[in-house]
Amino acid sequence: MKRLLVISFFVVAALSCGCSQEEDTLSNQREKLVSYLERTHSPALVAESSLEEGSQLPYYSVAGNTVCRYIKNVYDPNRVGQPEVGEHSTVSITFRAYVFAFSNISDSTFPFWSNDPLLESAYEGLGLTVADGVWTFEPLVLQMDGDILKGLRLALLGCREGDDVEVYMTYNMAYGDGLFSTIPLQSPVAWFFTVDAVE
User: Residue 161 belongs to what domain range?
Assistant: First the structure.
C-alpha cells in the first residue's frame, strides 16, 4: 500500500510538472506577444481595454487564450457599412501565415503558408510554381462554423469586408502540440490577411 501511494505521488507530480511547463510556455508567449505589440510593433499599439473614449490610437484586441488582433483600418468611417463576419458566415481571405519570433515581419520573412498573389513571382524565382503543387494563389474561403484554426476563427469574428488585419496567437490557439508542415512544436504564429468577402 505504501509503495502504491509513493508511485501515485510521483505520477501526480509528473503530470503537474507537465501542466506547469505548458502553462509557463503559454504565459511566456502571452507576455512576449503583449510586449512586442506595445513596444516593438510599428506602430506601437495599446490594448483596447486601455483606450480612452474618443481615442484614435491604434490598438489591439484580445480574444481567447491569447489571440491578439490589430485591424489597421478600424477607424475608416466607411468600415461600419461593410458586411461583418459572424458565427455562420462564409469568409474569403488573402493571407500570409508566419511562425512568429516576436520580432517585426518584413518582406524578406518567408511565410509557411500563403495565397497572396503578390508572392507568386517570388516563389517562381525560387523555382516553385503552382503547377508543382505549391500553394494556390486563389482567395481562401472559410466556413466560420467549419473546421478552421481556433485562433483564426476568434480573429475573424467581428471583422468586416475590406479589413486589413494582423493576428498574433499563442501556440495553443494555432497548431497546438502537434506537428504541422514545417512549424516547430509549440510555435506562436502570425496571420496577416485581408477580408476579401463576407457572406
Answer: 2-198
